[in-house]
Amino acid sequence: AAEGGPRITVKCRIGVDDQIPADILPDFIDRVMVETDRNPAVLRNLQHMYDTGRLAGTGYLSIQSAVDAANAGDVIEVTAGTYTGQIEIDKDLELIGAGVGQTIIEGAAGMPLSFSVAGGTANNPIVYVHDADSVSVSGMTIDGAGLGNSNYRYQGIGYHNAGGVVTNCDIINVIDTPFSGAQHGVGLYAYNEDGL
């Protein structure tokens, strides 16, 4: 690790407490044996999660990781819960929630992905669908959480050069906070400029 880089403090029951450079910590953890009363199946699941980014038998840790791993035409079923952050979909698939108010995708401040139309200002959707012909989003709430101030041209769901269907969804709170009267939030936005 670089001198002065991030470090993780490790407390030991035997020997001297030490600080281990953060960039070697995963390798260090793999080589350390620890006494535990945890069920071996739980430990295997934790190891599997560490190794592959997903929990054995229970699905992906985030909606985005499931979308990234999906093949065109796949169906992604999202369990009830609140998921914060932007979702990017660039392939044909179905994203199905557990129901309105049950599965909630909540916007975040300063979302990194955007698109511009006709060279104009960037659009910032919570669910960003692009370059796909058939993306279905259903059974969920898209909540802007009033974060329009930090996401100019804020959108709940934005389709850019893409097609699909949105059904049984609530798109809420895609607004400035406090309400400014100069709103630029849009619940559902679709724009096709590639002519397909």
SSE order, one letter for each helix or strand: EEHHEEHEEEEEEEEEEE
Number of helices: 3
Mean pLDDT: 79
What would you call the structural class? mainly beta
Shape: globular
Low-confidence stretches: 5-18, 24-32
Strand content: 35-45%
Q: How many strands in all?
A: 15
Give a short account of the largest sheet. Answer: 6 strands, parallel
- The helicity comes to 10-25%
Radius of gyration from the CA trace? 21 Å
First-last Cα distance: 50 Å
What does this 3D model show about the protein?
With 196 residues, this protein is mostly beta strands. It contains three helices and 15 strands. A hairpin with a 5-residue loop joins strand 10 (115-116) and strand 11 (122-130). The N and C termini lie far apart (50 Å). Residues 5-18 and 24-32 have low confidence and may be disordered.
